[in-house]
Amino acid sequence: MSKKKVLIVTQEMEPYTSLSQVSEMVRQLAPYVQENNMEIRVLMPRFGTINERRHRLHEVVRLSGMNIIVDDDDYPLIIKVASLPEARMQVYFLDNEDFFKRKQIFKDEKDQPFEDNADRTVFFCKGVLETVKKFGWAPDIIHCHGWMTSLIPLYLKTAYKNEPLFEPAKIVYSSYASDNFSAHFNENFATKASINNLSEEDLHNYQNGDQVQLESGAIHYADAIVRGSEELTEEATEALANTDKPVLAYDEENYRANLIEFYQSLLTEEVES
């Protein structure tokens, strides 16, 4: 029996980015998934804070060379890879000079969110799916960690719904307590996020009036949700209260084992249906 494939998409991961709950959880999870007889690939942004020499990143030429459209502009996508220390697994990094070269992650030197965080999110989420297509690697589970991955469930259920590579995949979204960066997204977000003629209705769950709601949208389109933090944003808490989808409760001590069981339940559900 072939190994199940798990794609982890994350905005952060230790040791490549400074320690946060997202980066720590993903660092714990990724090798554990592999140790439990699953095939795994990890994709994340190549932020300018990541030391390429220290972490031995190098470009994957066969995967690079694509252009990703954001708000009618083309941006080149460069793919780099590194081996996770002591884990015998590879992490792929999505890079672009306009979006990721700067030496901060989400905020500038004055502790203000970058004005182009919305564009960076759209670029990253589109880039992830196009990169996986270029892999030719069909995941059984796609697990998204953090607000910067929040458009992936939408794209998979709409623009990419007829893509055979993604058809069997169950989409899991982990929500974390974090700054509400989407509060700083402007009214053009829906236009920027739209691909392949997505309608306003498709993006309805990502907005509440003029306010962008990344967590609500991701929870709406995902097949299952993981509480990555004990306390979540008000938006995520409300969305979870109104969903009938499987939700894995927060349990830091048993996080990894519980998540493997959660994956298995989703895969069993797929077979039974």
Give an overview of the whole structure.
This protein has about 270 residues and is of the alpha/beta class. It has one domain: Rossmann fold (3-Layer(aba) Sandwich). Helix content is about 30%, strand content about 25%. It is built from nine helices and twelve strands. The chain has helices at about 20-35, 50-55, 95-100, 115-135, 150-155, 190-195, 215-220, 235-240, 255-270; strands at about 5-10, 40-45, 60, 65-70, 75-85, 90-95, 140-145, 170-175, 205-210, 210, 225, 245-250. Strands 1, 2, 3, 4, 5, 6, 7, 8, 11 and 12 form a ten-stranded mixed beta sheet that branches. Strand 11, helix 8 and strand 12 form a beta-alpha-beta unit. The longest helix is centred in the middle third of the chain and has 19 residues, at about 115-135. The protein starts with a strand and ends with a helix.
What distinguishing features does this structure have?
single chain; alpha/beta; ten-stranded mixed sheet; Rossmann fold; 273 residues; 9 helices; globular
Please report the distance between the alpha carbons of the first and last residues: 20 Å
Order of helical and strand elements: EHEHEEEEHHEHEHEEHEHEH
What is the C-level CATH assignment? Alpha Beta
| Rg, Cα atoms, Å | 17 Å
The number of helical elements comes to 9
The proportion of strand residues reads 15-25%
Q: What kind of sheet is the major sheet?
A: 10 strands, mixed
